[in-house]
Amino acid sequence: MTVTTLILPGLYDSGPDHWQTLWERADDTCHRVVQRDWATPRCREWVDTLTEAIAAVPHEVVLVGHSTGSLLVAFWADHAARHAPALLARVRGALLVAPCDPDGPAYPPGPEGFSPVPQAPLPFPSIVVASTTDEYVTLACARAFAESWGSRFVDIGAAGHINGASGFGAWPEGWALLESLHGGEAAARAQASPDRTFVLHWLDAHASPALLGAARTLVREYAAMPHTVGRWHTAEADIAALPHPFLAPAGALLVAYDNATPAGCGALLEFDADAVEMKRVYLRDAYRGRGHGERICRALIARATAMGYRRLLLDTAPELHAARSLYTRLGFVPIPHYRDGLLPDALCYALDLPARHVGAGATER
Fold first, then answer.
1. Is there a contact between 211 and 201 (Cβ–Cβ < 8 Å)?
2. Residues 181 and 202 both lie in one domain
3. How far is residue 301's CA from residue 308's CA, in Å, rounded to a whole number?
4. How many Å apart are CA 323 and CA 300, to the nearest integer?
5. Is residue 138 part of a domain?
6. Is residue 23 part of a domain?
7. I want to staple 265 with a disulfide (CB 3.0 to 4.6 A). Which of 37, 121, 218, 248 is the partner?
8. Of 37-41, 258-262, 308-312, 335-339, which range is least confident?
9. Are both 221 and 130 inside the same structural domain?
């Protein structure tokens, strides 16, 4: 049976790097529900638009909400139970990512009718996905939403607002959750998509032994590269200490997988209040030429932006021509040595990071 995925962005819509946009672009059964007013909406108008979208689909749908779009599902279900019960039967499930707190201090002024959030159990299977570092909802609040809606709760750790700035790209882990709501049909589409063989895993203090082992192996390989040998004198001690010091709020560490095999890594470490360094960027030889190095760098840039830094710094060796070309392509510019301890021949680069905006004064929410 055909199942349509209806994409429900939050305030200000989802930008080009948002996983919702990437899913819609990659899968022709994903369709965005376009709202008339993305910035200062009335909840009832959004509910009516969603009602029309579901009614226009002649078969089952799965709803995928982000932020205020996740709240929309709860409001719509409450409305449909009273005014359109037949449409409830068309909803196979809902993936509700980063449901924001409309009464929280970070929620912007302008939207109307999104509080109080309905607390009734949803009449279809649902999954709530939340982050420990989401400025728009506490983990406790997101968990409370899940409990009241009868949703499965998934805590993915330090992931910001789980939006484009979080650096997830097409977010294969999220697609797997969608797949569990869809059934086997989505699984077949996921297997057919080559983009979903490349997965980024961000480490936290509770990283699994397998993930931590992969990170240490990759960083050890990085330390053995010709431009690093003999220059990083504390390598073994630093590797043993991983994931420290690359932990939130002043750092980040990722491992990139290609077809479930560790392929590369990268890290961020705070330099000062405004700047963060990009470090330990490494890709195994077998995975070069596939664009993975650029994906890793773009993920680190997005994560640095999401962490609130305004400048990204790095140093590299003059013989790493491909890396230097990539940095230039990504917008980095040469700068003088920015810290003590660098080798005389080290080349330094900086990238000015954008504010976390997707419109005039507006962040994806």
1. yes
2. no
3. 11
4. 15
5. yes
6. yes
7. 218
8. 258-262
9. no
Q: How far apart are CA 136 and CA 88, in angstroms?
A: 28
CA 250 to each of CA 38, 139, 188, 210, 277: distance values in angstroms, whole numbers, following the listed order = 33, 20, 39, 24, 10
The answer to whether 84 and 52 are in contact (CB under 8 A) is: no
Average pLDDT over residues 309-320: 94
Q: Report the C-alpha gap between 50 and 34 in whole angstroms.
A: 9
The mean pLDDT of the chain is 88
24 and 167 together in one domain: yes
* 8 A C-beta contact, residue 268 and residue 279: yes
112: which residues sit within 8 A by CB, 6+ positions away? 40, 41, 42, 43
Residue that the structure tokens 């095999």 belong to: 261
Range of the structural domain that residue 184 is part of: 3-192
* C-beta separation of 190 from 235 below 8 A: no
According to DSSP, residue 42 is labeled B
- Residue-level pLDDT at 355: 60
Residues 84 and 142 in one domain: yes
For 48-59, b/e burial (b = at least 16 CB within 10 A) is ebbbebbeeeee
**Alpha helices, DSSP H, located in 4-138:** 19-26, 43-55, 68-83, 85-88
The total number of structural domains in the chain stands at 2
- pLDDT tens digits along 186-197: 433 333 333 446
Strands 60-66 and 30-32: unpaired
Whether the Cβ atoms of residue 327 and residue 314 lie closer than 8 Å to each other? yes
58, 163: one domain:
yes
Contact 196, 172 (CB under 8 A): yes
Question: Which residue type does 234 have?
Answer: T
Higher pLDDT, 355 or 145: 145
